[in-house]
Design brief:
This protein has 112 residues and is mostly beta strands. The chain contains 1 helix and 11 strands, in the order βββαββββββββ. The strands form 4 sheets. The chain has a 3-stranded antiparallel β-sheet with strand order 1-2-3, with no helix packed on it. Strands 7-6-11 form a 3-stranded antiparallel β-sheet, with no helix packed on it. The two termini are 25 Å apart. The structure holds zinc ion. Zinc ion binds next to loops. The site of zinc ion has 8 residues, from loops. Residues 4-32 form the Protein YjdM N-terminal domain. Belongs to the YjdM family.
Length: 112
């Protein structure tokens, strides 16, 4: 039980316990680790390496991806900030500079 989870807001690894709450010293987010599952709607989304992704994570695209309606592909190495997990085949909702709002498949990204 010494391994505390990262902050769900900013992914800081420096969260500390205060009673039953966890507090993040970097973004001042406070949360109850017991609630974590409920807030995520039970969605389990893993990246190409099998790491669990969470809302607000930053991921990197691992291969060039064609984008419907865009003249250029989304390039490998593109950083995608502040993702949102959604249900479905394309399970990451995000906004990418130059492309706008779009959806990605988690198998084509890795956690940054
Ligand atoms: Zn934080």
């Amino acid at each position: 039980m010494s391994d505390l989870p990262n902050c769900p807001k900013c992914d800081s690894a420096y969260a500390y316990e205060d009673g039953s709450m966890l507090i993040c010293p970097e973004c001042a987010h406070e949360w109850n680790p017991q609630d974590a599952g409920a807030e995520e709607d039970g969605l389990i989304v893993k990246d190409s390496n099998g790491n669990l992704l969470a809302d607000g994570d930053t991921v990197t695209v691992i291969k060039d991806l064609k984008v419907k309606g865009a003249s250029n592909p989304l390039k490998v190495g593109t950083r995608v900030k502040n993702i949102r997990l959604v249900e479905g085949d394309h399970n990451i909702d995000c906004k990418i500079d130059g492309f706008g709002a779009m959806k990605l498949k988690s198998e084509f990204v890795k956690k940054a």
